[in-house]
Amino acid sequence: LASGTFSEVRQVLNNLPGAEAAHLIESSPPREREILWQLLNQEQETEVLQYLGEEVRVELLRDLPTEELVELIEDLDTDDLADLLQELPEQVTSRVLAGLDAQNRERLEQVMNYPEDTAGGLMNTDVITVRPEITFSVVQRYLRRLGDIPKTTDNLLVVNRKNQFVGVLPLTRVLISDPGTSVREAMITDVEAIPATQDAHEVAKLFERLDLVTAPVVDDNGMLVGRITIDDVVDVIMEEAEHSLMGMAGLDEDEDTFGSVWHTVRRRALWLGINLLTALAASAVISLFEDTLEKVVALAVLMPIVASMGGIAGSQTLTLVIRAMALGQVQAGNTRYLLTKELAVGALNGLLWALVIGATAALWFDDPSLGVIIGCAMILNLVVAAGAGALIPMVMKRMGIDPALAGSVVLTTVTDIVGFMAFLGLATLLYANLVV
Amino acid sequence: LASGTFSEVRQVLNNLPGAEAAHLIESSPPREREILWQLLNQEQETEVLQYLGEEVRVELLRDLPTEELVELIEDLDTDDLADLLQELPEQVTSRVLAGLDAQNRERLEQVMNYPEDTAGGLMNTDVITVRPEITFSVVQRYLRRLGDIPKTTDNLLVVNRKNQFVGVLPLTRVLISDPGTSVREAMITDVEAIPATQDAHEVAKLFERLDLVTAPVVDDNGMLVGRITIDDVVDVIMEEAEHSLMGMAGLDEDEDTFGSVWHTVRRRALWLGINLLTALAASAVISLFEDTLEKVVALAVLMPIVASMGGIAGSQTLTLVIRAMALGQVQAGNTRYLLTKELAVGALNGLLWALVIGATAALWFDDPSLGVIIGCAMILNLVVAAGAGALIPMVMKRMGIDPALAGSVVLTTVTDIVGFMAFLGLATLLYANLVV
Predict the structure, then answer these.
(1) Final residue belonging to a domain, choices B102, B122, B142
(2) Interface contact flag, A283 B305, Cβ < 8 Å
(3) Residue B253 domain flag
(4) Residue B48 is part of which domain span?
């Protein structure tokens, strides 16, 4: 990029598929992004816009004059448009809404009624509906007159006179059945429509379990309001996965890899600050045992081992339980089994590594009692780590805290404090008896 | 479950949708799983089997007699069946193959030619093909005669006489176009078929970027061999996400939440063992400074803070870079920008928290030089952590090591060693001068 002339870059960029061009823009540092965006022609801008991440999209569009903005975004899918408008400043939103034609505005307002992470916020309003009483030859005539079936349409949606959802009619049935068949005879009625208020996470689970491609969305009165397509569900799944992964490191899933330094520093500082507090708590525990440490300096050498092993073992349990909860596998009936199993695993692994580290420590410092101390502390900390790893996410969920975000900090605090306390406490007891 | 009689449970279980029943079985401890599985009638067993996770599926099927097995699994999708057979013992596989009818066997062998994580391993062979020269009325007659269009079919696939892929024909076009239209006129030819050897990760990216529902798969000679459907791609996306998340904690993404204790202990012990080695390395570093620690016990109290902050900051960078690499955002052109940005973020956050912890330490132990030491060590370790967090995954990728699995161990080793070395080393230098 740096070496080519602008006109060359412009030509290449405008001939790329929209998704590729968007990918290129997202992989560039902020300044180059602006330049690349300026080089796009209008048609390509509309195309690229559909594929850009939310944060980058808002950044690029914020400063555009309203008219240009309206022109650019009116072809976006209703759900994308709704998400975008919710990110833009209030006065821009109202001006954009005023600039849209009546039909688009009505559709958009319907989607914007629902929060972004519900079925209503995910849906599109480009549904094709038919009545149960008509025959397939009428359906086919209707479709020919429409001339254009929206992308990712596998079913026509059947509604009654009140626009209430009654069933789906797969397009494949229209193709293979006799033209005299009525919609009522061929439609599938044991399909549950998704309530518009349902959580996006539940929607994704439903799509995954039933291998759906599209699903109808209804409001509280059973009226059809839109449909959800699998591509939007894939986005939900990917966002959730990123949330779990990034949350473990205290990052937001929208974190922009190539964002500016200053922005990034502020975002991450909070997490480091929280961690500093927990590290200070661990230090406070250590400082209780200053006298013992002064006498036996080997303790200072070995003490990080116990804390570190606890942290690792605990985070294995924590990760497993968080995943199982996300998959909906943890229920009242199996919680006790899961907890018992993890405690047993912790105890057995604690025993194994207690023997190894106990022997190592005893030989290294030529002090058998040191081996006993670190071994006992190890078993204790690994059992506590397993229990904490299993219980923390369950308790947090009940308290409405997101365990993917806060779980690992709390866990490390527990394993550090217990690790230091057990090791140095045992040492203090034992050496006090031996020395005195 | 525990309270109900078997016959009650049997009735409920056999009337649940397959996906729900499978979910119930997966959420149960091993012994209950066996019982639940025994209670299913054969029809439901086939249904449930489709939705069970790989590890659980193999566990339940391993001990069945071959005939029963064949009967049970011959209705599975070809790709699922191929995956399953690859997990079963060799002699079972060959007996199952022998038990299948010729057409199924041929299809299956085609899929089993390709590794599970390639397009060929993901594909199904249930394609409907048409020739370019026929008209839509012939197509529609053909579909009516077939009577059954496989689930998730949005396109017919157009092939020439040699069975080479030439284009796709959306079913919607067949519906809305004049019956006299020929396939050639209406088909879409600027669709690229996926090579059977392509990596599953690349396939998923393609589906996500282009919002595909299905895609044709071809062999080296351009011959159509099958098609990939979005539901299998969703599974790939979810498995990859789990791999990243679980890998960070040293867990396998197939780890069975309700697996047996003994099995789990063995799986996790390795990871703890590796961690013990790195913790011992950190201890070895500390032991270099035993003399200094003996003189200034406050150092032992504070030293975990520097290491811990480095670990957190480093894992933020590491997670971000691993995600960016998975999304294909890291290229030769922007590596330097990314590294510079992360180093700058590390330095600025280092400076900020160095001031905070420096002041805290100086006040706590009433020793300004201790504040200076910990502050300097903090800045140094956070910059090193940022550099290591960015470089480790890049280097590992070039060496063919999976950074999601090994990245965090190596990173923590670096930040621990540098943290202890910097803090205790600086202290040794400074106190030696002050005391002597």
Answers:
(1) B122
(2) yes
(3) no
(4) 6-122
